[in-house]
Amino acid sequence: MRPITFNGFRRTNGAVGIRNHVAIIPVDGLANLAAKHVAHIAHGSEAFVHPFGELQFGLDLELTFKTVIGIGSNPNVAAAVVIGQEPEWTKIVAQGIAETGKPVAYFTIERYGDLATIEKATRKAIEFVQYSSELQREEIPISELVISIKCSESDPTSGHGSNPILGKTVEMLLDMGTTIIFGETTELTGAEHTIASRFKNQIEQEKFWQVYNEYIGFLKSQHAHLLGSQPTQGNIRGGLTTIEEKAWGNIQKIGQAMIEGVLHTADSPPGKGLWFMNTSASAVEVATVFAAAGATLQIITTGQGNIVGNPVTPVIKMSANPLTVSTMSEHIDLDVKETLYRTKTFEQCKEMLMDLLIRTVNGRLTKSEVLGHRDFLPPKLYRNP
Amino acid sequence: MEHSILIHKPEDHVGVAVRDIDSGETVVGLITENNDLYEVKVIHKIPLGHKVALKSVSDGEPILIYGSNCGLALDAISKGEHVHVHNMVSARWK
C-alpha cells in the first residue's frame, strides 16, 4: 500500500510546504543588488531577483504584486525579507506576504542607501534563518499537496511517453484529493475543444473560452507567423511540426481528468482538484506563476531537455527521449525512455514517478535544486509609461 | 517483433520513429491503441522523434495524429516519406 502521508512543514495559516526557504524579495530591479548581498551574507537565505517593479500601473502592476507576494506567501517559504526603493510599494508587498502569518520584515533604500539597508536586512535575515532552522517536518496527508504540471521543449516522445505517464499519475493524485494546476493557454490550440469539454460546469467553461479567445486574439493582432515560437525551434528539431500536434501531445498529461475551473495568472486555486491557469508557455515564467499560486512541487515532462528550475518549488523533470536522458542526465530526474520500447508499461512508470514524488516531498533534492537552477521571472503585461 | 515506430491510432497518417531509421529500411510500427503492428518501407532517413508517413496523403489534405487533424499536407506525400515542416503545415497558424 502506497504511503498516503509525507513529512512537510505546516505553516501558521495551515498551508503545507515541502521546503523551508528564507526568501529575500526585491520589490523592484534596483533592490536586486541589496537582496543578493543579504542572501550572500545570511547563509540559508535566498534572493529572488527580477527586473520589474518600477513605474508599472494597472493590471500589469497588480500582476507583479500578485506574483511577488505569492512567491513570499508560498508554503515552501518559512519567512521573508522584502527590500524596495521606497516605502509605499515595499509595504504593500510585505503586508501581502504577512497575511499568511509567517514572519516578514521590510526595508527601503531611499534615505538610507544600500549599505545601511543591507546591514539592517541582513540582521533580520540571520534571525529568520535561525528561526526556520528550528521548524520541524510533521506528518501530513498527501491530499494537502498542491502540484503544478507542465511540458517543456516537447517532442513526439512527450506525447507517446512522458505525458501519458504523467496523465495517469495526475488521475491517481486527484483521486487522492490533491490540488493540481496546469496552464499554457496558446499550447492548447488544436485540442482546445477537448479541454473545454472537460470543465465540470458551464460557467468555468465559458470563462475558459473567454481567456483562450482573448490570448489567441492578441497573437493574431501581432500578425506574426508563430512557427518557431509555437512550436518552438527546439520542438521542431525534436520532430514536432504543428501547434495542433504539440497540443494533442500536451493534453495527454492531464489524462482523462475533469477540470474544476479557470485561474487567472498567479491566482491560487480556491479548492482541490484540477485547475487550468491562463499562462504563457515559457518555462521560467510558468514555473514562477505556478509557485506564486502556491504550488509546492512542480512536475515537468520534457522531450528535448528543458533545464528549468525554480527557487521556491522543486521541479521534477522526466523524459522519454533516449537521446535527452543520456546526453542531459544531470537535468533529468526520471528516465522513462523504456516506455517507447514497451519494455516498461505506463503503469510501471507511473509507480516510478509516484515513488520519486514521495521522496521529493519528504526532502530529497531534485537535480535542478542541486544544480542551483533558481530560474525566476514574473510575467509582464505591457510596457511602462 | 520489435517496433521502430509508434502510432497513436489506427486511422493516423503518420507514426513516430523511436530510433534513428535509415532510408530503405522496412520497419514495424506499433499502434498503441490496439497493439496492432503495421509494416512500412521508409524512403528517407527518419531521426528519432520524427514522423514517417504510413499512407499516401494528397496535397492540402488533413494529416491525422492522435486520430485528430493536426495539420495539412503541403504537397503530395507518399508512404514511407519523412513528414515535417517541409511538407506539413498548421491549419491554425499558417
TrEMBL record, chain A:
**Span of domain D-galactarate/Altronate dehydratase second:** 8-131
User: Does the entry feature the keyword Lyase, yes or no?
Assistant: yes
D-galactarate/Altronate dehydratase C-terminal domain location is: 142-382
> Per its UniProt record, what InterPro entries does this chain match?
GD_AH_C, GD_AH_second, UxaA_altronate/galactarate_dh
At the top level, the lineage of the source is Bacteria
Q: Is Lyase included in the keywords of this UniProt record? A: yes
Keywords of this entry: Lyase
Pfam families the record matches: GD_AH_C, GD_AH_second
Q: Name the family the entry cites.
A: Belongs to the UxaA family.
State the protein's name: Galactarate dehydratase
**Provenance organism:** Siminovitchia terrae
Automatic annotation (TrEMBL), chain B:
What is the recorded name of this protein?
SAF domain-containing protein
Spell out the InterPro entries in the cross-references.
SAF_UxaA/GarD (IPR044144)
Q: Which organism is it from?
A: Siminovitchia terrae (Bacillus terrae)
